[in-house]
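Example: IQ motif containing with AAA domain 1.
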Amino acid sequence: MLLKHNFKTPISKPALQAETIKKTQEALNGLLQREIEDKSLKPQKDRITVFQTLATFYIKYVQIFCNLETVYDQIVHPQKRLVIRQVLEGVMGRILELKNEMVELENSEFHYFDDILQDLKLSPEHIEIPIPRYFIKEKVKVLREREKILAQILMNSGLQDIKPVSIPGALVIQISERARQGRLRATFMKQIYLEEKRERQARLQGVKGPNLDAAALHIQKVWRGFTQWKKTVKMREEEMIFLGMNPPPQFQRISASVARAQNVETKRCEVQGRHETEYEKALVSIKTHLREIEGPDIKESLQDQIRQWFIECWHITGKFPDYPNEEEGGSTAIFSQKTPDQEEEEGWKMAPSNFLPIMEEGNNQYKDIWQNRDERWNFLQEYDPELIKEEKRKEVEEEIRVQVDELMRQELKNLKLAVDREKDKKRKKGKKGGKKVSAAKDGKTIDSLYKELVEEGLLIKPKTVKLSDYVGEYSYLGTTLRQVDIEPMPSLTDVRQLIALYGILPLGSQAVHEKAPLVKALLLAGPTGVGKKMLVHALCTETGANLFNLSASNIAGKYPGKSGLQMMLHMVFKVAKQLQPSVIWIGDAEKTFYKKVPKSEKEMEPKRLKKNLPKILKSLKAEDRVLVVGTTQRPFDADLRPFCKVYKKILLIPRPDYASRFVLWKHIILQNGGAVTKSLNISCLAKVSDGFTQGHIVYAVQTVLSERRLRQMTNKPLTAAEFLSSLARQDPVYKEEEETYKVNLRYATSARRIA
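Written out as structure tokens, the predicted fold is:
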């Protein structure tokens, strides 16, 4: 009874989960059916129609992705989670494939769906790529252990950040008391000064005593004006709430429903973890039981089938057959049937997908097993032993088949010797001709290499930043501008979407990375302060990836010479592959491909990686979840052809537009402890800060919101004028500079096509 009482809340809504799954499955069935139908259609030649088709598929798959991610996070049944996970990864991969097709069609990384969203009655929030929560949840223990090891290495090597020395408590009290006495004395002296000033003015003007009627009238005017002002403010606030411009007062308080939902989520995670542990134990125990009970019968049945094959071949050909070797599949090859390859039609069609079969298999499996299954007995949503038996029976059969193959090969050999009187012709197994890539015999373990890279500053601790912290608004004029042949500047939301698609989804899922269009290197280009480094750290935070720093300034003087460079790269990429996912960050990426190295930087040898980087990228395979991310604020200083050959995905990060600045000011002020009141005109700040980047806004806010100013905020609300002086001390990014980035990005795209 206690178990049911404690964990009833997280699993008390199975009907709601079932309804969500049903709707998602219906939508997925419709999409899969439509994709099958599109394969039989004639090739399309109209580019606009093709893009509309791809974009519609993309938007609908993103909606299914959001629903499946929510279902996977909330469901507690371990076997259902496995099937949903398979479909979820298939949908993620299909989204990446559709995105790749749109990029090849339009020769642009940025796409705008304003008209399609309007037709489908959707808002931009509906196509926001969610970050699957299981990326981090399923390896929390590993990440915590890695953080402890990293902190220990940094502390032992003296590289740990020095914490500020704490001031003794008595000294703090003394400082506060002296400051309080000073403020009281200053107030007292001011009152004395003002009293003396009034007396002097009265003597000079010859004013007699105060007129009581005039004083009373003045007090009435002030009081009535004040009360009327309060009423007007209240009426204006009620009107704004009625129009939906301001949230109601109850929205400012912490909701009991939110607190309850957080409690439910915590309990649900506990249930999921416990059910997963029980399921993993059951996999081992049930498999062992099957091997002991059903193993002998399976072995005997397989031997009878293979002996029957021997006899049939003898009767048909007059001799015994050759037994298939292990590379050919052993006895499984005896009964397999080959299907003829199908020819593909010429012309543009939807490219073949690696993920459609995965989605179809998972979808059919869920439909066949779970849709009509009676689960009234399984209220706690624990594992189903019968399904485990069906799954493990195949594994046991395969293991026994390998043993039977060895026995039957020997039996066939004896038959040939006894009946045909022929010596067994031993076939030589051909070895594959390529050279085996083995780890260098440097005598070092991964732990020792990890420690060395941390001590050398090549492996660094990423900052804890979420992708959702990269705040920005959607561009609502993208389609309209393209229709009149004007290429719009991408919005911050577009940039955030691409980081999720090209970085987070492939790094977070091994299945997606292996079969989706492979992105080995990514370049983030834009002026100073637009958040390039923040996005690199967000990549690592959302996927739990290691962060390696191979910037020219960081590797200067480390591992000198050609052999030293090769050793460094070998160590970095060996650890990156072993402890994947990993992000290799190259700051100021243009320096590696300088047209001409400046004299001031010749000692740093910025072009050390120029020859080795393309070779290393070529050696990265689909199973290696390693992403090279370059950041640059001066891409025009690089030699574009080799530069674009390495970085095949180049993302321009612009300065924020008005809508993004409006959201940014609000977000950054709240993030730094400020409060947004009626006295603070955010719209004015957003307008005045045109041309300034996120970094400029952060600097302005942090300069104003000192500890002293935060303490005064209750009595003295923030105003827009306070931020202007710190903003004016910085240089904005002018429109001409931004246009230079745009033009260079076009040149880079052309150079990439030539390369």
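The beta strands are 459-460, 521-525, 546-549, 582-587, 626-632, 649-652.
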